[in-house]
Amino acid sequence: MTLLLQVQGVTKRFGGLQALTQVTFDLPKGQILGLIGPNGAGKTTLFNTINGVYHPEEGRILFQGKDVTNKMPYHLAKMGMARTHQIVRPLNELSVRENVMVGACFGHENQSLGNAGKIADEVLEFVGISSRTDQLAGSLNVAQKKRLEMARALASHPHLLLLDEVLAGLNPSEIDGMIQMVLDIRAQGITIIMIEHLMKAVMNVSDRIFVLDYGEQIAEGSPNEIANHPKVIEAYLGDPKLAEQLMEDD
Amino acid sequence: MTNWQKHIGIIIPLLVIAGLMLYPTITGKAAARETAFTILKAIALASSLNILLGYTGYVSFGHIVFFGFGGYVGFYLLSSQGMSLWICILAGGVSSGVLAFLLGKAILRLRGAYFALATIGVNEAMRAFINNFDLFGGPTGITLNFKAYLAYGGAAKALEMAFYVVGGLAILAIILSYIIRTSKFGLGLLAIRENEDAAEVMGVFAPDAKTWAYVLSAIIPGMIGVLFFFKNGNVEPHDAFPLHASIELLVMVMLGGQGTVLGPILGAFAYQGMRGYLVTSDFFKDIQLSVSGALLLIIVLFIPAGAVGWLRQRFPILRRVLA
Ligand SMILES: Nc1ncnc2c1ncn2[C@@H]1O[C@H](COP(=O)(O)OP(=O)(O)O)[C@@H](O)[C@H]1O
Ligand SMILES: [Mg+2]
Questions:
Q1: pLDDT score recorded for residue B4
Q2: What's the pTM value of the predicted model, to 2 decimals?
Q3: Residues near B11 by beta carbon (within 8 Å), at least 6 away in sequence
Q4: Most exposed of A102, A215, B4, B17 (fewest Cβ within 10 Å)?
């Protein structure tokens, strides 16, 4: 099993706030890692630290065996890392197609404009917004913008895809569509880390789950192990009874 | 699509330039050439600024510094070293490009208003420097020996030639603008304009891309500067670095439509037309710049996309025609 990503003792502070404390995990190629934890636990910060938006105060990060701790986001993109944003960041005044072409042109495959156009059309078809191709990205609704985030990331044909709450704000049928999409992406051989609030979704698709609370990793394991982990139930859901209920309903 | 339809976005702008270059011959009036020169110069400068302002989204309030600096360097070589005009124009372009490269490394990491303020500072600092720089004549500047025109067939011929050269530079500026607009490099710039952080996450090397955009937006203004001072026969610091000219360029780009090839051309046209009217009217001639300021305010408030942008939004079918 080759390791695509290794996070070793990563600590990130914002002033006095300890957003990540000694976070450590390995991610083998081809897996889906679910990343869960209450609001403000540091999940998005972990993504930002992995893809070079922030640099950790301690620890190091290896991607494809190379130390990338102090690299910039564009270096990591060129190495085959792509991500979506929890708060969508469309390039508003560009068309949907152009948005996706940026991903293909500047990602690790460095595609030409012509090829990027073809890739954009394929990827837009795949995420199901091909009818919006020529619209300005700013005119999409939230669900469509989430798909656009996904399309831009996929257009780079990444080795590692970081998904930050792609299900939030979607209705149940959209959620099912998105989950299927994630599984299809994994089937293409892309490794995924997925931040998600919806327990059912994350339990169903993840090979392993990693739990953060107040910047500390409190548990790691298979979905089954995590679901029955007392620390997780306590930290993540507060009330054990509520936890059981949620797991059944979902 | 046939070939000419694919490139219609550049054909319309080139036709406008061709019309302007023929205009003095058609009307046969001497004043017409002066008017057309001013408009062509404005088109070249505004199209250059558009690379930074319109494509990359960085507002430069001091873009005229490249006109002045490149102009000074080239004009010095022309008047004091007796080099040929062509070499001097190239030298003006190169020196402005180098200046932009160095400046870019220093100030392009600033965003928004901080960058805009820094560009004003650069222009004023450069003016102060040249004012005290003896090689370039300090506050009195440099005057060209009249004999220098002899090499170009006398003063009258030299002025006529300068007119066609400014037309050539305007064409160069537009072609450069169009190539960038339709290239992968240009797509990266547009991505930076829309959201620099998102662009970096998608792999755009923003610091490098911004620096090159800055350099490309500085070269032609430097060349125009040399030509303009050659035509005038002299240069002084306050002619070379007029802050208000930077702001007028901004108005032109915003008025016509930033981020489009055609926009700065229409904007330069409209603005120079308006300015020509204002400075000759008794009522407006002293407050001409205030009118420009008010115009900028109105554009920013009501049609931030400018005329071409507005048309593109209103009539999506025009998007293919109005590049
Ligand atoms: N750029 C920043 N500056 C200061 N504090 C930040 C910054 N980004 C995140 N934080 C703080 O770090 C903590 C973790 O935030 P975040 O990673 O967004 O949590 P999550 O994604 O798990 O909800 C929060 O307390 C948040 O306020
Ligand atoms: Mg978050």
A1: 65
A2: 0.92
A3: B4
A4: B4
pLDDT at site B15 = 93
* Ligand index nearest the alpha carbon of residue A36: 1
Which ligand is nearest the CA of A39, by number?
A: 1
A-chain residue closest to B206, CA distance: A74
Q: Is the CB of A39 under 6 A from ligand 1?
A: yes
- DSSP bridge partners of B109: none
**Cβ burial, residue A51 (10 Å; 0-12/13-18/19+):** buried
Domain spans in chain B, listed from the N-terminal domain onward:
3-318
Atom of ligand 1 nearest to the CA of A15: 4
Angle of CA points B274, B314, B197, to nearest 5° = 90
Assess contact for B247 and B296: CB atoms under 8 A: yes
Contact predicate B207/B218, CB 8 Å: no
Q: Residue B193's closest chain A neighbor by CA?
A: A91
Q: Kindly state the tokens that stand for A130.
A: 């091909």
CATH topology assigned to domain B3-318: ABC transporter involved in vitamin B12 uptake, BtuC (1.10.3470)
Residue nearest to atom 27 of ligand 1 (CA): A40
A87, A152 in Cβ contact below 8 A? no
User: Residue A99: in which H helix or E strand, if any?
Assistant: helix A96-106
The verdict on a CB contact (< 8 Å) between A106 and B204 is yes
Question: If you classify domain A3-80+159-249 with CATH, what class do you get?
Answer: alpha beta
The answer to whether residue A246 scores a pLDDT higher than 60 is no
Residue position matching structure tokens 């009818």: A131
The tens digit of pLDDT for each residue in A35-84 reads 999 889 999 999 999 999 999 999 999 999 999 999 999 999 999 999 99
The pLDDT assigned to B140 comes to 92
Across the A/B interface, how many CB contacts are shorter than 8 Å? 75
Q: Judging by DSSP bridges, how do beta strands A208-213 and A216-221 pair with one another?
A: antiparallel
* pLDDT beneath 50: ranges in chain B: 1
Q: What is the pLDDT of residue B306?
A: 81
Question: Which sequence spans correspond to the domains of chain A?
Answer: 3-80+159-249, 88-157
Token digits for A114?
Answer: 């012509």
Backbone angles phi, psi at A15, to 5 degrees: 60, -120
ipTM above 0.85, yes or no: yes
pLDDT for position A231: 80
DSSP secondary structure, B188-241, as one string: HHHHHHH-HHHHHHTT--HHHHHHHHHHHHHHHHHHHHHHHHHHHSEE-HHHH-
Residue A183 has pLDDT above 90, yes or no: yes
Q: What residues in B contact A107, CB-CB < 8 Å?
A: 202-203
pLDDT, tens only, B54-99: 999 999 989 999 999 999 999 999 998 889 999 999 999 999 999 9
